[in-house]
Amino acid sequence: MNEVxxxxxxxxxxxxxxxxxxxxxLTVARNIRxxxxxxxxxxxxxxxxxxxxxxxxxxxxxxxxxxSVDRRKQGRLLAAASWxxxxxxxxxxxxxxxDVVAYDGRGLQTTPRWIRQxxxxxx
Length: 123
Hints:
30% helix
């Protein structure tokens, strides 16, 4: 990924975080990297720990940003979340959920689409 794409991606993550904070979610962590990948946002929605994947896509390979969170990506997110929970034992007893905040088409000028529980978790 080049520097411009990274900057736009970080802006999308900050915008998604602000959007979710306005919906009542609290930020726990952001941009957690491990050998399995990256967790864009880790948030709390009351008693639920929410792992948020932020997707920004223009028309092309996938019909929309949400579709780009395929089985392979889900597997990486599950592994990264498991890694995170092993290192945060105080949060390990929380219910967890995987959400997606998607920006389609015109990018950050569109209202984000928030998909709660975008996929099921065996964790």
